[in-house]
Amino acid sequence: MKKTWVDFKLDFPESFTGERYSTCPVCSGARRKHGAKCLSANGDTLKFLCHHCGYAGDFERGVTHKGGNGAPVEKKYVRPCYDLGPKVLTPATLKYFASRGISEATLVANHIGIETVYFPQTEDLRPAIRFPFLRNGEVVNVKSGTADKMFRLEKNAERIFYGLDDVTGDTAIIVEGEMDKLALYEVGIKHCVSVPDGAPSPNTRNYESKFGFLENCSDFIDGIKTFVLAVDNDEPGRKLEEELARRLGKHRCGKVTWPEGCKDANDVLVKCGADELRRVIHEARDYPVEGIFDVDDIWESVERLYDHGLQRGKSTGWPAMDEFYTVREGELTIVTGIPSHGKSEWLDALIVNLAKTNHWGFGIFSPENQPLALHAAKIMEKFSERPFYKTHEVWTDEGEIVYPRITVEELLIGRAVLKMYFTFILPPEDQLSVDSILELCRHVVLKKGIKGVIIDPWNELDHSRPGHMTETEYISYCLSKIRRFARHYNVHVWLVAHPTKLQKNSAGSYDPPTPYDISGSAHWRNKADNCITVFRIMGTPDVDIHVQKVRFKEVGEVGKVTLRYDRVTGVYS
Predict the structure, then answer these.
(1) What is the crossing angle of helices 178-186 and 265-272, to 10°?
(2) How far, CA to CA in Å, does 471 sit from each of 67, 190, 308, 501, 521?
(3) What is the pLDDT of residues 268-296, one digit of tens each?
(4) Which residues of the chain have pLDDT under 70?
(5) Which of 118, 313, 519, 551 has the most Cβ atoms closer than 10 angstroms to its Cβ?
(6) Is the dihedral of CA 370, 374, 378, 379 positive or negative?
(7) Nearest by Cα to 367 from 501, 462, 483
């Protein structure tokens, strides 16, 4: 049976052309401005979308998003109602763009339009400039901007690079805003895209929402050999450049240097002209090649050292431990200890602390922690500081509960925490080489922007080595590769390695092992930035953490810290 607008509780004529606005049957009644026309419908495409709660659908597929506050989002994006046909551009609009160096021809080529749009910020309709985001000729999102610089992307639409279809070769320029993309188009440089949400603020800790578009554009990214980063010359822009280079790989990135007094591409076009903008882009320089530097490559770092001094790593979450060991991006920490002394437990506790206080994400290769559901439960215990299992609840003799288990609500919170901060890496048995694990970690860096990687333990990897290599040479080769990965992607890597069979001391017990006790090579100590031994004091809840090497004095120093382990929650204090 043919659908009508009434089937979706929408009060529109049975047939009309173009776009119309109405209230939303899902969310309008519950809002302060219940008469605001927040839902748009297109009579030609027969699609509708509430720009406030996301209620959406079309005559062909029905309702594709239920909308409403907290309504479950289906795993498919809505498609905006935007016609790519000829647009009416007012004289005032053309005058504005002309003042920014953008011609009418460029606006027409990029399907720029002026339309009345609903803005959730004010719960009102406003005239706005509309920038359609196209992929393979289809509009997948639209950004709307008002004269007073209020912006919005479509509710529940897919976030991608702006200008994606204009890149047809293996080089792409990345800018920070749509006006910068149009400025480069104006001077004949069309292989340019803009990030959809601008740059993160300088104090942003969790970049997950800002860089989700990279995953949506992964096929495009994989086909590009060279990215030229041409973002804004300010602190947020530098944050954006740094994170893009880290996720895309500095080895295939270049960067521009804007002329003195210019902040971005559009600024250069307006102040210096088309020739200067073309020159700046064409003279973009590579990120420093490993091992070759001139003073320009390192000058920003020199200025940061002058202004801020040497920077410590992130806090471990244990103030007593921070005196000896902090966690800095781009470093390799070797963790060893006698079997069953809690190396993995301590590492899990450490990364939970880092996730809580610094919003770091982690890729975890820990095949001994299987099944994965068990490992997830252990992490949730540490995060909530409550036992996961009912059998682990602790009661007093008087029948009062001391340690109640995680509630159903906390379980759901734990799921959200795991999704946000922790990604488990567990390839098939025939893909356990160092190269395979690092390649999977690279994908997680791109997809989720993780800041830490755990490889636990070394002996679970496939160590088939070339016949011409000794074990010592092989270990040196692998550790160098892992350390390069850490520095290249600016992540901290913890590598767990078991010691060889130890000899008891004169008292009949074991001494804490050192990196020299790990099987195969003294390179375990030599190649690491930091070395840590986890040593449990048998018969007590105490665990000694021996910091046995710290390469950089601003990060920490050699020493020992005693932590107390709570078996019920897995928490160290």
Answers:
(1) 50
(2) 59, 52, 43, 18, 8
(3) 999 999 999 999 999 998 876 556 677 87
(4) 1, 69-75, 202-209, 288-292
(5) 118
(6) positive
(7) 462
Q: Give the span between the Cα atoms of 32 and 24, in whole angstroms.
A: 13
- Mean pLDDT of all residues belonging to the chain: 89
Sheet hosting strand 285-286, strand order edge to edge: 192-194, 171-175, 226-229, 253-255, 285-286
Give kind and range of the element (H or E) at residue 335. Answer: strand 332-336
For residue 168, what is the domain's CATH number?
3.40.1360.10
Cis peptide leading into residue 457 (ω within 30°): yes
Strand duo 151-153 + 171-175: pairing: unpaired
CA distance 429 to 102: 56
- Are the beta carbons of 568 and 389 closer than 8 angstroms? no
Q: Is residue 123 part of a domain?
A: yes
Burial 136-161 (b: 16+ CB within 10 A, else e): eeebbbbbbbbeeeebbbbbbbbbbb
Contacts of the segment 205-209: beta carbons below 8 A, 24+ positions apart: 205/358, 205/359, 206/359, 206/420, 207/243, 207/449, 208/361, 208/420, 208/448, 208/449
What strands, in cross-sheet order, belong to the sheet with 362-365? 422-424, 362-365, 452-455, 492-496, 332-336, 530-536, 542-550, 559-566, 571-572
Tell me the HSE value of 240 on the side-chain side, using a 13 A CA sphere.
26
Q: Is the dihedral angle over the CA atoms 147, 148, 153, 159 positive or is it negative?
A: positive
Would you state the pLDDT for residue 292? 63
Please count the helices (runs of H) and the strands (runs of E) in the chain.
16, 25
Query: Is the domain of 168 the same as that of 149?
Result: no
Strands 171-175 and 192-194 turn out to be: parallel
Q: What is the rounded distance in angstroms from the CA atom of residue 239 to the CA atom of residue 231?
A: 10
**pLDDT score of 206:** 60
Query: What is the DSSP secondary structure assignment for residue 64, as one 8-state letter?
Result: E
Element (H, E) at 33: none
- Confirm if 354 and 492 have CB atoms less than 8 A apart: no
Amino acid at 257: T
The reply to whether 163 and 153 lie within a common domain is no
Domain that holds residue 209: 159-309
Q: Measure Cα distances from 28 to 51, 62, 136 in Å.
A: 11, 20, 35
Placement of tokens 């250069």 in the chain:
268
454, 488, 491 from 442: Cα distances, Å: 13, 10, 10
Q: Is the pTM of this model over 0.90?
A: no
The token pair at 227 is 């990215």
- Paired residues of 138 in beta bridges: 135
**Shared-domain flag, residues 358 and 254:** no
Q: What is the pLDDT of residues 73-103, one digit of tens each?
A: 444 788 888 989 888 889 999 999 999 999 9
How many domains, the chain? 3
Residues 20 and 32 reside in one and the same domain: yes
CA distance 233 to 235: 7
